[in-house]
Input
Amino acid sequence: MNKTVFDFFNQDLQFIHGVGPVLAARFNDVLGGRRVLDFLLHKPSYVRPREILDSVTGAQNGDTITISVLVKSHKRGGVFRGRRHPTQVICADKFSAPVTIQFFNVNYLDYWTEKLPIGQWRIVSGKLDFNSRNGAIINHPEFIEAPENAAKIPRHQAIYPSGEGLSQKTFAAVRDQIFKIIHEQIAAHVNDERMLEFIDALEHIHYPETNDDLNPNNTYVAKLAYCELFAHQSAIAINRRMRAEQKSLRPVRAKRYDLIDKFYGILPFNLTSAQQRTIDEIFADFAKPIPMMRLVQGDVGSGKTMVALAAMIKMAETGAQSVLLAPTDTLAQQHFAKIAPMCEKLGIVCDVLTGRDKGVPRREKLVSLRSGRTKIAIGTHALFSDDVEYKDLGLIVIDEQHRFGVQQRTTMRNKGHNPDMLALSATPIPRTLSMTVYGDMDISIINEKPAGRIPIKTSKISIMRTNALIDRIAPQIANGAKVFWVCPLVTESEVSDMTAAQSRFDDLRKHFPHTGLCHGQMDKKARDAVMTEFADTNSKMRVLVSTTVIEVGIDVPSATIMVIENAERFGLAALHQLRGRVGRGSQQSYCILIYSNNVTPDGLKRLDILCETDDGFVIAEQDLMMRGVGELLGTKQSGWIQYYFVDYREHRDLFKLAQSAVMNNNSDDDAWAADLRQIFDCSTIAGA
Ligand code: ADP
Ligand code: MG
Output
């Protein structure tokens, strides 16, 4: 264990020279942590060259240029005849070509003119605004230095993904400080060659000279990516080993009832062969002595709930209990409404427990769970409150599993003795990657939809045609159609999402008086109420305007139209998920993707994929190839691991290398693997 290094890695950035609590808090927002390590794992996104030029001639409008200029004169700015004029410093380059430097905050005139004294050479660096009337202009240069201080301007400036209140200069200063400490105080104490190489690789990516140095295929980036993958893979291997040593209670439970055949008998439809295969895989797990840990992936509407129910009923044959955990109250109630009648026919006691249950009724439910009478409990995380006890919890089913954290999964598991886990996910992930993403889990795929589904018709239109769209859907709404209208993620801030949804709501309400609104700023109760009203077949609400907070998996079979604004800003997988909210009933459904005026040709091409296919796995693969992971909005929902250095597209070979390195487990590597697991915080790996 490299103690000195880790002490430094874990140090709060606030104690780095020049940082302090305010900046540390801002770093925390950007880095997702405020330790030195969080900074070190934050890779610059590109390099801005600032080589000093002698002449502006040849530079392009919009380029960032760094140039030596001779200051000729000052032209004081201010407000003249009602118009604002900038302060101008007129200069010339080495070939006497004019360069004008402009400042708009004229109050600081003296400051700027002192930095740019007449008759002196200065090096300025900033964005060139070239036009035929005024020639070369640099507004507010980012650097102004005397020639003897030229070294203060970085020739190759690493540009970091940043946030409010954090300038690139701050990033550079903190980085310099960190590496200074490493060289002066840390490196000498490290006796592990691999750690030194690791730090060296970090230093290379924090001091890149060209964009190639930040490329996934760059030696140092690839090295870091490999370390990251190795950390994850070794964490997964440990999980797997630990699980193999656990003993399930299943083998000691006796079968007491015949339920599963009866269940098949009362099913109102035939299972698809993919559903049947998945159930077989689950039952094969049940025949083994170790706890099951299985993930079922299948598109929305592929019928995952019935598969889960089959597993829970199989569990009930021995008298053991199962829980089905849903991310929201609404979803829990929907599951209960569907499952309870079937359980009743089979004589299985089924109950629902959410945060809404209070007082005596809740206590009664808890008694029934504790006595083992309730065999199937459906609910939210209320099922795992401290005072909830189970007689013999055998199986935990987690619906939309990415919505639950590791901590929650651990709490759940502790309610039983090595219970089986079954996770359901509507996010298809390309097969090649699922192992690495879902770690320790075995995977079943439902790649087939129940027969008789009418494919959703998907089309894309420009925002300019929104009114035409409203005219087109009006008669359908008059005939009872229900519409989801999803508003754009304007920025990551919820406030502006809300504004967009609010103004669309105001607009649509003029056409359709019974329109509902649902966004993240509303409290959960109000949101649930709107959603429930929209789902209610008897309600008049026809249109639901919302931000993407609309619940994953919500079932409104009468909803047939999904409109998504600014669709190009979402990941394909996220769009596909949203689209899955419709097309659940017997009516033809439609998905309309509205793109904004600044959509790129690539953005349009991505939308075309969605118009052409309904296969979630094809879409996931395309998404991955076209944009990688984590680059666009909407990935939060996708549940994929956000790597620091690994690029899903470019590092596929490294995935395999890391996997086989872990499998050939060389005990020399154990200490280093443990260090890497700590560096890349593997405690959040799925299944851990
Ligand atoms: P999801 O995989 O999105 O959770 P659900 O389990 O909610 O899908 O199933 C969607 C709908 O399809 C439900 O109304 C369910 O009853 C129905 N369903 C499930 N399996 C079949 C099947 N084999 N044939 C016909 N309908 C089915
Ligand atoms: Mg579902």
Notes: The CA atoms of residues 365 and 609 lie 48 Å apart. Confidence is low (pLDDT under 50) at residues 629-639.
